[in-house]
Amino acid sequence: MSLKTTRNEKSVTAFLDSIENEKKRTDSYAILHLMEEVTGEKPFMWGDSIIGFGSYRYQYASGHKGEWFLTGFSPRKQNLTLYIMSGFSEYDDLLSKLGKYKTGKSCLYINKLEDVDLETLKRLVQLSAEHMAESNS
Questions:
Q1: pTM of the entire predicted model
Q2: Virtual CA dihedral for 31, 113, 83, 129, nearest 10 degrees?
Q3: I need a labelling partner for 28 at 20 to 30 A (CA). Which of 20, 37, 77, 96 fits?
């Protein structure tokens, strides 16, 4: 089994510039800069629509192994999806201060950046990326 979503050399800025909705494009650039600042990593495209920062290797009990990003995001049609790879179980305190959002297993869904507290978002991204880097070292 091979993962379809892999790191590639496609242009991050060309992808972001192709976002038709101006507000979503502006918010996406803001998230790009926030994640760059927090991780100290250069952004890469993963597949056609995810921007990831850093990477870690994983191996499942089944023997399947691969590489994935420490944190990342994707400007989807319905919302901005941020990938908090460590999940949310450790972050109740931060989430209570974040603002308006929804979560999936390791996805944080926000409609627009004004809906959330940026400092809290920055801290959440930072803690998750650090957790993933440490758990892989």
A1: 0.93
A2: 60
A3: 96
